[in-house]
Amino acid sequence: MMHLTNYAAPANNQPGGVTTNFCPNCGQPVSATDTFCENCGYNLQLAQGDPTQPSQSQQSTQPQQTQSQQVTPQQRTSRAPRQPWSKKKTQIAVSVGVAVAVLVGFVVWGSQHYSRAATLNRTISDIKSGKHLTDDFSSASSDLTLSKAKLLPINRYYSDHARALSKLKADLTASGRSADGNFVYEQKGHHLLFFPKYQISVSPVYPTVTTNHTGNVITLDNKKIATATSDEFTKKLPAMVPGEYHLQSKGKIGGHNLTNSSDYHITRSQTYDLQLTTISVELDTVPGSSIYLNGKKTGTADSSGTYQIKDEPWTSDMSVYAAYTSSAGKATTSTIKLHKDDDQSSVDLDYKDLMSEDDADDFISNLFEAAGNLSRSGDMSDATDDDGDAMSDFFVNGENNAHYADLKKMAKGYYDNDDLDTIDMDTSVSSVKPGPNGTSEVVFTVEYTFGLTDYDYDHVQDFQYTATIQPAGDDDTSQNYELVKYGHAVKTDDRHEDE
Predict the structure, then answer these.
(1) 206 backbone dihedrals φ, ψ, rounded to 5°
(2) Which pLDDT score, from 0 to 100, does residue 288 have?
(3) Which domains does the chain have, with CATH numbers?
(4) How far, in Å, CA of 207 to CA of 264, rounded?
(5) What is the 3-state secondary structure (H, E, C) of the chain?
(6) What is the pLDDT of residue 475?
């Protein structure tokens, strides 16, 4: 039940009176012209009385209502209470919320999944695996209709050339174009109406093949494409996707069946010579090196470093290189392309930065000359070779090299040994082999001759070492080479010699 409390206000005609009234329902200030209380919605006209009712003087003759008298529902106006949602409305609201959440999630997922970077990452993976290539590529020419078979040469090349694939990705990321201009990464329409669709647009190449004998059969990826009709036969091939192809020319010359067969990375509209001829070449390299012809091992260089290629069918893409494997790792020479003019000639396969035996002999001799001087004087100022080069200059990182510290400790130990009267160190280099990353693996022997104080003979010991030596860097050193490390000494001889 609601009880009304009358709040008095000064009369307007009294001195100092103001027109401020108060809601009899909630007590909040209201204006005299308000019909309803802005705070609780109470009908203020009911509180003031209807003009059609008797005047105040008339009302005074009537029994006055007590404050405790109830106010009927018709005498007040209040806001209707909110009704709870029906089950149907609740289900609709939940469904709308779920749909909005799904839509937002879909937009976020699609924006990421179909982004330029994410699409390129998937495309590069597809190139390596050979999957989904028809989705990843589009043709830049009406001459070239793409299919899975036509796109496989891209996978064939890049699956075997990881560095080239990384370079392609870097080029497409940076500029949207490969270095040779054959591939352009660009937007081609949309996915699901909203998201950009990126593809690699490929430009075709138009290679030409030639051979030198009538009747030679030419094949492309083991499929016959032509038979030579003259001794100077040429055929231009239709539009092709840049990639790796197997070209072959086969025929009979002078009673001998010859084949010119090789894999070619075709990236330009150039001529590929499939002449049937042979070549014989002598290769000179480090003894024991493996010889690779057109990427496949064909033999090993003999003890003098020589390997003979005899009557090998020549191809315009024919190439050779050598590789040497040791406990330190694998080293390879640069790849040399063989030309028809190299027939009956000699070709050198040199390892980059490999030390010559003469340079190695001088280096080791000077190093142990400095060590011998230190062992005889005990003074670091004497730890130099005859040219005045400090012993530390022979080592990578100089005095901070652990092997320098070992050699210095050994030489000073000899000086401090009272049983030694003299000490000499003579060196000899037995071999120089290529190591990984331009290093040289030098095998050398040091002959230590100890003059004993109380004996009339010398004690002689031979120790063999294997040192890793590299070209000197930009350090302030007088040496052309620097010793990286050397392995544990192996004693090869121990004897006494009369003075």
Answers:
(1) -130, 80
(2) 95
(3) 1-79 (no CATH), 113-202 (no CATH), 212-273 (no CATH), 278-348 (2.60.40), 357-498 (3.10.450.50)
(4) 11
(5) CCCCCCCCCCCCCCCCCCCCEECCCCCCEECCCCCECCCCCCEHHHHHCCCCCCCHHHHHHCCCCCCCCCCCHHHCCCCCCCCCCCHHHHHHHHHHHHHHHHHHHHHHHHHHHCCHHHHHHHHHHHHHHCCCHHHHEEECCCCCCCCHHHHHHHHHHHCCCHHHHHHHHHHHHHCCECCCCCEEEEEEEEECCCEEEEEEEECCECCEEEECCCCCEEEECCEEEEECCCCCEEEECCCECCEEEEEEEEEEECCEEEEEEEEEEECCCCEEECCCCEEEEEEECCCCCEEEECCEEEEECCCCCEEEEEEEECCCCCEEEEEEEECCEEEECCCEECCHHHCCEEEECCCCCCCCHHHHHHHHHHHHHHHHHHHHHCCHHHCECCCCCEHHHHECCHHHCHHHHHHHHHHHHHHHCCCEEEEEEEEEEEEEEECHHHCEEEEEEEEEEEEECCCCEEEEEEEEEEEEEEECCCCCCCCCEEEEEECCCEEEEEEEEEC
(6) 63
The pLDDT of residue 13 is: 43
Rounded Cα distance between 19 and 224, Å, is: 110
Residue 434, exposed/middle/buried by CB under 10 A (0-12, 13-18, 19+)?
buried
Confidence of residue 286 (pLDDT cuts 50, 70, 90): very high
pLDDT (tens digit, 9 = 90+) per residue, 330-376?
999 999 999 989 999 999 999 999 999 999 999 999 999 999 999 99
**pLDDT tens-digit readout, 186-200:** 999 998 888 999 999
How far apart (Å, rounded) are the C-alpha atoms in residues 275 and 302? 31
